[in-house]
Amino acid sequence: KNQVEQSPQSLIILEGKNCTLQCNYTVSPFSNLRWYKQDTGRGPVSLTIMTFSENTKSNGRYTATLDADTKQSSLHITASQLSDSASYICVVSVVGNEKLTFGTGTRLTIIP
Amino acid sequence: EPEVTQTPSHQVTQMGQEVILRCVPISNHLYFYWYRQILGQKVEFLVSFYNNEISEKSEIFDDQFSVERPDGSNFTLKIRSTKLEDSAMYFCASSGRGGANNEQFFGPGTRLTVL
Q1: Do residue A98 and residue B108 have CB atoms under 8 angstroms apart?
Q2: Which of B91, B88, B101 minimizes the C-alpha distance to A30?
Q3: Cβ contacts of A43 on chain B, cutoff 8 Å
Q4: Is the N or C terminus of chain B more exposed, i.e. has fewer CB atoms within 10 Å?
């Protein structure tokens, strides 16, 4: 069964600090991995999409890494801002299939 | 910047009633999706739709659910006889292309409350 696990479940950091969120997946055959940001009560917004051959991708202060051998990904947020407070969701898809499999997310809170 | 819109933002209904959730995808997109998120749980895929047909559906999407593109702009999700467990946020998404590497753009969601 395709599964996506994320850690930690929640994280609180001071504004300006960096943080790293983790994602492990058991999906086969793997096609791509995405990170989404979801503000409370809103729809998910795409941050990065990485295919099998990509091991890092950046979007501003967000940098995602992918290790397809160990089936792990991380999302690193640099110089956090209050507006980064949200849930960050790891999402994986399989080859030939448009269905997205979502993780449970990491709830990130930035405090001043 | 073009975006997916959904109406209503919040729908309250009695158990057993029919509801229709509406979505306006991004105008040049051809691939449409519905997802749901029960409070405190992960987002779950319901159905994908292309060329006026369902291309894929999950086990959640049973006979009580149907989707339709009634005109050139709207994409709807109908729940025929709502149950308490249908209470959730329902997200519509659209994409300009199909396949596993497509980027899906999500709407703000409709919160459905079944009493």
Answers
A1: no
A2: B101
A3: 4, 91, 93, 106-109
A4: N
CA distance B83 to B90: 15
C-alpha pair distances (Å), B25 with each of A68, B16, B100: 33, 28, 19
Structure tokens at A27: 């999906």
Give the integer Cα–Cα distance in Å for A63 and B50: 33
Which of the four pLDDT bands, split at 50, 70 and 90, describes residue B57? Answer: very high
Among A50, A44, A24, residue whose Cα is nearest residue B33: A44
Per-residue tens of pLDDT for chain A, all 112 residues: 778 999 999 999 999 999 999 999 998 888 899 999 999 888 899 999 998 889 999 999 999 999 999 999 999 999 999 999 999 999 998 887 778 899 999 999 999 9
